[in-house]
Design brief:
It is a single chain. This protein has helices at residues 2-12, 17-24, 30-35, 43-53, 58-70, 86-97, 116-125, 132-150, 174-187, 240-256, 260-273; strands at residues 100-105, 157-163, 193-198, 212-216, 225-229, 234-237. Strands 3-2-1-4-5-6 form a 6-stranded mixed beta sheet, sandwiched between helices. The protein has 2 domains: 2-70, lambda repressor-like DNA-binding domains (434 Repressor (Amino-terminal Domain)); 78-273, Endonuclease, Chain A. The longest helix is centred in the middle third of the chain and has 19 residues, at 132-150. It is 49% helix and 12% strand.
Length: 275
């Protein structure tokens, strides 16, 4: 996040990375490494760089200096680094810094709302194949993610829209799905969680091309990103035009989905069916 914003400022000023490195008396590759996130900066280095760039807005300067300090903190997932792929590490670090997440899901309960048993069934099913110990560790990570995001002092605001098919996909079997849906009903009572169901009778809709996540950050609003995941790779979209498209798509899905109370009724009815 810090590197992306500093690159944006430099490019707006039409400065070269080599020129900035020379002015800062840095090694020629340092600007490229910090802008790509391969290395970090101390807060005082950010201050000096912003002076060079002529950035005087106090709010913007403070936000970027905060990002530099936060980048040095010890994070909860460090003990799990041996089982986390770089792709997953990127995602949970973004999520940890987010103030709110809006997501549309078509096949699975969002990870932040999964029970341990449901998460275990999902992790076992998805490639690549993992050992029993790795599966257990990844389930621990998912539960730790939930605690870190939803139980922190200023909890993440989560707005999830679920395709109705998710209520019928018996991940782990009927009893396990029932337990998972009952957990959804409990989580729906939390003030920071909004849950809607997109019913079958909505017909064709704006999200038919697949699931996505929109992450919003408290420090720099223009660093918000859209995340889309595939089997072999993931995509983070940061351009204003891309964020606008997904923002409008989420709004259309929100309008097409059942309201919060009718969605709760749909989930409760499905729980009764699975009894």
């Amino acid at each position: 996040m810090l590197g992306a914003e500093l690159r944006k400022i430099r490019e707006e000023l039409r400065l070269t990375a080599d020129g900035v490195a020379e002015a800062m008396k840095w090694h020629a590759s340092k600007v490229s490494r910090l802008e790509s996130g391969r290395s970090g900066l101390r807060a005082h280095e950010v201050t000096t760089l912003l002076d060079l760039y002529g950035v005087h807005d106090e709010e913007r300067r403070s936000g970027l200096e905060t990002l530099a300090r936060e980048g040095k903190r010890r994070v909860w997932w460090q003990p799990y680094n041996d089982v986390l792929t770089p792709r997953y590490l990127d995602y949970i670090s973004f999520e940890a810094d987010s103030s709110s997440v809006r997501c549309f899901e078509t096949t699975l309960i969002p990870g932040l709302l999964q029970t341990p048993d449901y998460a275990r069934s999902v992790i076992r099913a998805l490639p690549p194949e993992s050992s029993a110990d790795e599966v257990n560790a990844l389930v621990e990570v998912r539960m730790a993610r939930q605690n870190a995001a939803l139980k922190r002092e200023d909890p993440l605001k989560l707005w999830a829209i679920l395709d109705e098919s998710i209520l019928h996909r018996e991940v782990g079997g009927p009893a396990q799905l029932r337990k998972q849906l009952a957990h959804l009903l409990d989580m729906q009572e939390e003030p920071n969680i909004t849950l809607q169901v997109l019913p079958f009778d909505a017909g064709s809709h704006a999200g038919m091309l697949g699931p996505f996540v929109i992450m919003q950050f408290p420090v720099q609003a223009d660093l918000d990103v859209v995340y889309s995941e595939g089997l072999a790779s993931s995509v983070y979209l940061e351009r204003d035009s891309d964020r606008a498209v997904y923002g409008r798509t989420f709004d259309l899905l929100r309008a097409a989905a059942r309201g919060v109370d009718p969605s709760r009724d749909m989930i409760a009815r499905r729980v009764r069916e699975l009894t």
